[in-house]
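Minutes, project huddle
Topic: does the predicted pose make sense with S-adenosylmethionine bound?
PN asked that the exact inputs be recorded in the minutes so nobody has to dig through chat later. Recorded below.
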Amino acid sequence: MREREADIERHYGAADISARILDALARAGRDPERLERADLAPFDEFHGGGIASTRDLATFAGITPGLRVLDVGSGIGGPARTLAAEFGCTVTGVDLTREFVAAAQMLTARLGMGDACRFVQGSATALPCAAASFDLAWSQNMLMNVADKAAFFAEVARVLVPGGRFAFEAVLAGDGRPLHLPTFWASRPEFNFLVTLDELQALLGGAGLEAVALEDTTAQVIAAGHKRRAAIAAQAEDPAALSIAVIVPQDVGTKMQNALANNEQGRTRTVKAVYRRPA
Ligand SMILES: C[S@@+](CC[C@H](N)C(=O)[O-])C[C@H]1O[C@@H](n2cnc3c(N)ncnc32)[C@H](O)[C@@H]1O
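Predicted holo structure (tokens), as shared on screen:
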């Protein structure tokens, strides 16, 4: 398991991601000493629907101000900062990839949001968090990398208070045909741990989590993917433009194209869901 996690960390963790981000911002005419959240929006929400789907999931989950949120697989911290700035939560982010955690900390400090968001390196299957210490667990597009989902969901149930909720977005297996690779979460089949919706629901239930709501989001993610593909093409033409390419240095155009094709051809599908630890 540790070897597999090291592979996943290598997949995401471009060296000097923080320096790449600051360079890209400077090229785009932003002042790295006076950053605003909007400056980062083209690349700091690393999941299919971007910031719109973070807002949508927060509303779907009924988030209220003051909640203590754990974001598992927090990336460079965009969703955590959105939940803090727009929904009044305090957020702890945990991510396997050290370079992403360092970038999340750097950007959050520059935005002056260190009181509301903190980031630590760790694994979803052994969360570095006390039992019953969060009101809401949160995860966007991370499940695809987790081989032992039963262990992750058991950890979610452990760290939630009784009655606490688990809100997530995930890519799921579609019609069973092989995926087009590389894509954003996997360069090779052995990094890819998609399950079907039935398997996902059984695993969540096995950890004692109860379903509150679940919806298919494939159509919205496809629409957002077309916009993101256009932004990637614009950045290839004009280095002053910003896109997800800032944090995906290798094969970003191919990964985007394959993510879209997988969803459009039914090889994958996406869902948003809210589960609950019984009170
Ligand atoms: C596609 S990115 C999504 C990042 C973030 N959730 C967002 O939406 O901006 C997937 C993230 O999951 C992290 N990850 C993958 N496997 C993990 C694990 N077992 N434990 C914690 N983080 C993991 C990766 O390092 C990466 O940052």
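Observations noted during the meeting:
- The beta strands are 68-72, 90-95, 117-121, 134-140, 160-173, 210-216, 268-276.
- The CA atoms of residues 144 and 193 lie 5 Å apart.
No decisions taken; revisit at the next huddle.
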